[in-house]
Amino acid sequence: xxxxxxxxxxxxxxxxxxxxxxxxxxxxxxxxxxxxxxxxxxxxxxxxxxxxxxxxxxxxxxxxxxxxxxxxxxxxxxxxxxxxxxxxxxxxxxxxxxxxxxxxxxxxxxxxxxxxxxxxxxxxxxxxxxxxxxxxxxxxxxxxxxxxxxxxxxxxxxxxxxxxxxxxxxxxxxxxxxxxxxxxxxxxxxxxxxxxxxxxxxxxxxxxxxxxxxxxxxxxxxxxxxxxxxxxxxxxxxxxxxxxxxxxxxxxxxxxxxxxxxxxxxxxxxxxxxxxxxxxxxxxxxxxxxxxxxxxxxxxxxxxxxxxxxxxxxxxxxxxxxxxxxxxxxxxxxxxxxxxxxxxxxxxxxxxxxxxxxxxxxxxxxxxxxxxxxxxxxxxxxxxxxxxxxxxxxxxxxxxxxxxxxxxxxxxxxxxxxxxxxxxxxxxxxxxxxxxxxxxxxxxxxxxxxxxxxxxxxxxxxxxxxxxxxxxxxxxxxxxxxxxxxxxxxxxxxxxxxxxxxxxxxxxxxxxxxxxxxxxxxxxxxxxxxxxxxxxxxxxxxxxxxxxxxxxxxxxxxxxxxxxxxxxxxxx
Length: 572
Prior knowledge:
Blueprint: E1 2-4, E2 9-13, E3 20-25, E4 31-36, E5 43-48, E6 54-59, E7 65-70, E8 75-81, E9 89-93, E10 96-103, E11 108-113, E12 120-124, H1 158-161, H2 167-171, E13 184-189, E14 194-199, E15 203-208, E16 214-219, E17 230-236, E18 239-244, E19 248-255, E20 258-266, E21 271-276, E22 282-287, E23 292-296, E24 302-307, E25 316-320, E26 325-329, E27 333-337, E28 343-347, E29 353-358, E30 364-369, E31 373-378, E32 386-392, E33 398-403, E34 409-414, E35 418-423, E36 432-437, E37 441-450, E38 455-463, E39 470-478, H3 480-483, H4 497-500, E40 503-507, E41 511-516, E42 522-527, E43 532-537, E44 543-548, E45 551-556, E46 558-560, E47 563-568
Parallel strand pairs: 40-46
Antiparallel strand pairs: 1-2, 2-3, 3-4, 5-6, 6-7, 7-8, 9-10, 10-11, 11-12, 13-14, 14-15, 15-16, 17-18, 18-19, 19-20, 21-22, 22-23, 23-24, 25-26, 26-27, 27-28, 29-30, 30-31, 31-32, 33-34, 34-35, 35-36, 37-38, 38-39, 39-40, 41-42, 42-43, 43-47, 44-45
Protein name: Cilia- and flagella-associated protein 43
Main location: cytoplasm
Family: Belongs to the CFAP43 family.
């Protein structure tokens, strides 16, 4: 789809065999023209010239054809086939409709359209290497070997030495002459007939559309490998506005080949497109997931949310206690009001989060990431949540995050079967107290606080290799782990079994969920194969010790739990 503001028209194409291009007025939505070209399947790009009279279209498979239209007269002025060339962006020069730029991930091409509308030239820009250096490439047909004294014989063409003839001789290049080039991601024009080009490698190029000379302005600092930093550009009198995956709209003040960077604002999610209003007083920002924001220039600039879009599956949800708000994770942290469901705030973490839990004893939130970090948020001000602390636990992915009911312990489960115990108090900097190993894939964790004994019972549901059975690991967290953690762990930080009194149980059902009751006498389990919630009685703990010299090993008995159906669930 393409729009032209001076003419107040919009162009779009249908998706069908032999599609047509339709041009409608806006906002009346009355049809002005229907254009029928050579495309067999789809038009991938449309673009109006700034004067509004001309329309450029680009069709993909199978034609890969660039076409220039006079849409008012409904005629094709010229066209050019480019077999196999995928184009990602197409723009007219706003100061000269005779110049048209097409860019893809591997090339950038500038068209000069002659006044006769019959003759046109295609000029390809030579891109720099990935490190930003300019490449002085020789012509493949007339490249010679290294200069040498002619007494040893004539200087031969490289293609002649290779024994090539015809087209191969014209296009042949030795391996040493091949260099990886930058990959353009976006471009925009400035008022002096020059192009700014953003590259995947982090470079900003300045290209003169007349001479096709290329200058590398700079390289962004700390460019993440494999990520496109620049997704969109727009030119303004205050500088070149740039935005990308970091979610920050930057302004570059460019002087010759140097520039200064100013961060205007952060929308906290990857930006897909930015565009200025016709009077350049308003900047429209569109994010990749569909949110829309506006930034107003002036003495008191401000950001306004037009559309706040959410995408993806909810990964975790919990209540902020005490209070009347709750959090969700949909690729970002969102805080909602319980009373009416209104949205309070959000925070984009720019990392993959697998689970989340709110602390019952403080206004903090723990987040488990795929990179093995625990991130802690301060939600004292629900309208402005912020990351205040990070703890790196493991190189494995963190899959489960759980607090006990009193908010004393933070219990972490990893993808490789480790359970980490952390002090849940912010005043203790969320100190790691110890860990224990669970043999298998952790499905769920549940805790219950036993006030009479001042300890926390932890239950871990584990998948086994036997598809029709489940395993439960139950252990205790006494107060001594908080007060004297060094004496409760071995030299590696593993919690001692005689301290946590670890027990193991097997169940003849494949449970998908299980929780402890408030008295630690029963547990409730759900099996997806049958529509029942079952209760299991937990036998008393029995331990045997074998003395082997000075080494004592705890042998953990296996108990088969007896089942009783307490709920019958009917699925509609």
